Structure formats: C-alpha cells, structure tokens
Amino acid sequence: MLAVAEIKPLYRKNVEQAKLLGELNDWRASFRENIACARAIDAALRDGFDGMHLRPGIAEDIVGQYGMDRVAWVLAATLHEKEHDGRFSQQNKAWGESQRITWDRHSCEYCCYAHSVLVNDMINDFRMLQEAQAQIPDTMKIRIFQINRDRDQDRLKYRNFDNRGGRPVDAAIYDRVFTGEIEGKSLEDVYRIFNTEGHRLHRGHSLSVSDVVELCDPVEDHEAGFYYCDSVGFEKVDFDPELAQVPEKLCRVLVLEPHRRPYESELVDELSALQKAVGGHIEFTYPFDDNAIICGNEDAKLEGLEGNRRVYGSVYAGNLFLVGDDGEGGLMSLTDEQIRTYSDMFAQPEDISQDEVEADTGFVLYGF
C-alpha cells in the first residue's frame, strides 16, 4: 500500500516578517517541513545513485510528497547557500535567483547536503517538471445547470432570455449537471464542447438555450459569474447555485487525464455513469492506505490508450478518477483533505511511452 502524505502549505515570509504579523507558528510549521523536504531529497539522492547513474523519477517522487512549491523553495535555498559552488550550472543558478525566496538566517538549515553534482542533476529534472507544467493547455473551471421539466411550471426551458416575460432566473427549477475543468478559454468553447462534442462527465443533454453556465474564474471577455445560454451568445444573470438540485448517490471525485493536471468533478454511483467516465468496463484498484480508490478502464492497456500516471511502480493508462470506498460495496465522496492530498500527489502530468504502457500489461501480444 502506498502511504499518502498530506501536502502542507508553504509559508513564504521570513521569520522576521512572521513575528511582525503574529504568524510565527505558521512559519515554524513550514520551516520544519522545509527541513524534512531537504532531508528527503538527500536520502533519495543517496539511495538512488548507483555510482554511475541517478535513478529516474526522484524529482517526481519528492514533489508527490512535498508539492511543487516547497521543493522549488528548498532547491532555490540550496543554490543561494552554495552560490560559489562551481558544480551547479549557471542555468540552475539563474533559475534559483528567479524563485525569489525570502531568505533569513535559518534558511541554511533546510539546504540539501547531498553531493552538489547530484543535487544539480535533480534541479535539472525538477526544472523540466516546472516547464512541462507551464505548457499544460489553458483550462476553465465551470459548472452547468439545466432546467428540470418536472419543476418547470412556467415552461421556461429552451426559451430565449428576452422571451421569459421579465422573470428572474429561478435556480430552484435547475439541476446541476456538470462540475469540472475543460480545455478552453471562452464561453464559446464551453458551447462547442457541450453542444456538439459532448463530455464524458456531463449528466445532462447537449448545451442549449436556457441552460446556465457558471464561470468559476474570469476568462476571455467575461468575468466570473453565471451566464444564461441565449439563442445568440450568453447573458449574465443572478443565480443562486445552492437552490439547484443534484441526484442521489452523487460522489465528489478527482479526475486524472493524460497530460493534464487533476481536477475535481462529480459522478453518480451508477454503473453506466462510471463506464461512461472511463470509456469502457470499469476496474477498481486500492493502492493507498486510506479509503481512496482508483477507477479506470479495465482494457485501457489492451486498447492502446495513453499512459496516464505511475502509481507505486504500476503504470495506469486512459482516463482515471479517484473516489472513496464506503466499505459497504458502494462509493462515496472524497474528503476535502483527500482532494488536496491527491491533487498535490498527481499535480504533475507524466510522459509515459506506449512501450512502457505495453510492458506493464504483464504479457506480449503477437500478430499472426
């Protein structure tokens, strides 16, 4: 079983600033975690070096334990402390300066003690992770609401905004049918995906007039808020999402897709919905030490689906989601802590070759 460490928040101010702000306890907790991170790096480099080569994946492992921000902080502090060490490349030294850490007299205590050549190699790998993360496509966090005909006494479903007779948009007649992140930059992208292309986690019909889209963050030409889908474009409206209804057995899940950061979504604990989410027969695995499980496509590797994540030595392919096991044969929502922990653990998308995916199937297919 893979033990899951909670990713603790990084405190970015120095000790003097923490004293002035009355946040010394936060600084101490982060300081201790910085030291733990540095010692974990030292141990991983020591154990992962065979005298000739450094084991691949050390940077990813440490990021999974301590998060991108803290690892960057500790490595940058090490470069600052060893600024005159010629075994660190000029490119890495410049990177360290760009991290803008708040240095104080205690920062040297969480510097890495491992051989500088090995630390330099790890910084190279870590910078590649950062660069790959920066190249991840733009995403939008959204929710979609659609009118439920059973509660639509005034027959407002599919009406243009101007044909509503001046009525306010009543969220109580709506169902929430999607929560998640999509690749896109505008409301037009939302319409294209949910009206013409479809989405495997969408529980409603194709996006249509009278549907309401919530932009959780600002996007091109639109601020965060609620938008009524009109016959042409979208109209910003007042909308209370707490009044909208959701189905029973709705579970809060964390979605893992190849080449993308994880995102939170929702799934109904029904076989058809689970199969739609993974694109085939479902398979549950239990690699963690809590009740979180991974659900994927049972035939993902045989179907040649893309590699997604490496988990404790195993390669997972195709679309995945993490959900809770209720211990009674059903599924349950992940907790806030689990969402944070696993989001940090799987924050960095991985490049996994098809050869590696096929090698992990346990057998080889020969054609005749």
Structure description:
With 368 residues, the protein is an alpha+beta fold. Helix content is 32%, strand content 20%. The strands form three sheets. Strands 6, 7, 8, 9, 12 and 13 form a six-stranded antiparallel beta sheet that branches. It is globular and about 75 Å long.
Labels describing this entry:
single chain, 368 residues, alpha+beta, 6-stranded antiparallel sheet, 5-stranded antiparallel sheet, 9 helices, 13 strands, 32% helix, 20% strand, globular
Provide a short characterization of the protein structure.
The chain is of the alpha+beta class. It is built from nine helices and 13 strands. It has three domains: 15-134, no CATH class; 139-243, no CATH class; 250-359, no CATH class.
Number of domains: 3
How far the N terminus sits from the C terminus, by CA atoms, comes to: 39 Å
Discrete helix count: 9
**Quaternary structure annotation:** single chain
Radius of gyration, whole Å: 24 Å
Unreliably modeled segments: 363-368
What share of the residues does DSSP label as strand, in percent?
15-25%
Structural class: alpha+beta
Q: What gross morphology would you assign?
A: globular
What are the secondary-structure elements, in order, as H or E? Answer: HHHHHEEHEEEEEHEEEEEEHH
Biggest beta sheet attributes: 6 strands, antiparallel
Mean pLDDT across residues? 91
| Helix content bin | 25-40%
**Quick one: how many beta strands?**
13
SSE layout and pairings?
Blueprint: H1 15-21, H2 24-48, H3 58-81, H4 90-98, H5 116-134, E1 139-147, E2 174-183, H6 187-197, E3 212-215, E4 225-229, E5 234-237, E6 250-256, E7 263-268, H7 271-278, E8 282-285, E9 292-297, E10 307-311, E11 314-317, E12 320-325, E13 331-332, H8 336-345, H9 354-359
Antiparallel strand pairs: 1-2, 1-3, 3-4, 4-5, 6-7, 6-12, 8-9, 9-12, 10-11, 12-13
